[in-house]
Amino acid sequence: MAEVKVAYLGPPATYTHQAALQVFRPTATLVPYATFPSIFAALRSGSATHAVVPVENSTNGPVIAALDLLLVFSRSPPTHAIVRETYVPVTHCLLGRPNPLSSETPSPDLSHIRALYSHPQAWSQCTPFLDTHFPPGKGVSRHDTDSTARAAEIVAADESGASAAICSPLAAEVYGLSVLAPGIQARERNQTRFVVLGPRSQGGGEKGRGNWRVKTGFTIGVKGHRNVGLLSRMLVVLERRGVEVAFLNLRPGGQGGFNYAVVLEVFARRGEGSFDTAVREIEGMGGVISWVGEWEAAGIASREVQRERGAGSRSLLWAGLAAGGLLILLQQRLSVWRR
Q: What's the alpha-carbon Rg for the chain, to the nearest Å?
């Protein structure tokens, strides 16, 4: 059997590393990469057989940098696809070195901290804590890093002890740092959904015929401003055919000019009559479809997240379109269709 090499956003102890451990341990070699582009490049070159990337967070929403690369990757020769998903609880801690001038107190003494490091997604997930302990004007600088674990690396190398990192409890163990403040995320049920990219031959297959449902990921693209309205009509086709939407995000098409694409996940599989009919209708309207993958939906965790968001097919559809500025167009199309 060929060796399984899994690319993930490193260094060790990132949440992506935890997701990779959750899916592959101990059957694969996990290889850290510094950036999202380098992860996708490793798949293209064959340096990695699989990759794990985050796609959405229950606090911040879609992980745009990863989605945009996935959109471009879906147009490449179809060697890889999404074959699995998993959820990882995100528990942020403030890591660093204790204040040497303070005695033990019930609340942390953070007066010695002059610089904070973390991944951009972490700042907004910890806003109340940061506003309380490091308000604007206090003289504490914030520095973005490529990952939360990279922030821990930087702080571990800072001999002054005046810096701190927002990252996972695992990073404290890996980099020899102290937990200055545990559980600083704003929401207790903060989770990130990760997808696993692997050879297309490892897709959904016969999965989803038991307890869990199958998701199919694809994109619908159109060219030019004057054709953006087509997207609203194409999405109506999915609702009319009873295809349940699980995830939706509008992104630039990435091919120059004012081109757009909708990234979609639906609870359906290719080969099902209603879904196939919807796809043919969309293509007949001029939509360019690229297939991202077919995989078994994560079980209990994914359903809990959907309940927390009040998700159903229609609520997700409306939320995604509102974010993309297409809500009014779709309302108009639905009103015409229902007459």
A: 22
Residues contacting residue 284 through CB under 8 Å, at least 6 positions apart: none
Q: Strand 245-252 and strand 5-9: pairing?
A: unpaired
What type of residue sits at position 295? Answer: W
pLDDT higher than threshold 70 for residue 339:
no
Which H or E element spans position 40? helix 36-45
| 174, 93 Cβ separation under 8 angstroms | no
**pTM for this model (two decimals):** 0.80
CA-CA distance, 156 to 152, in Å (whole number)? Answer: 6
Q: Which residues contact 53 (CB under 8 A, 6 or more apart)?
A: 9, 16, 36, 39, 63, 66, 69, 70, 194, 195, 197
Report, as an integer, the average pLDDT of 188-195: 91
Of the candidate CATH numbers 3.30.450.40, 3.30.565.10, 3.40.190.10, 3.30.390.50, the domain formed by 93-181 belongs to 3.40.190.10
For all residues of the chain together, what is the average pLDDT? 83
| The residue type at 162 | A
Q: Rounded CA gap, 18 and 220, in Å?
A: 32
**Cα–Cα distance between 278 and 297 in angstroms, integer?**
21
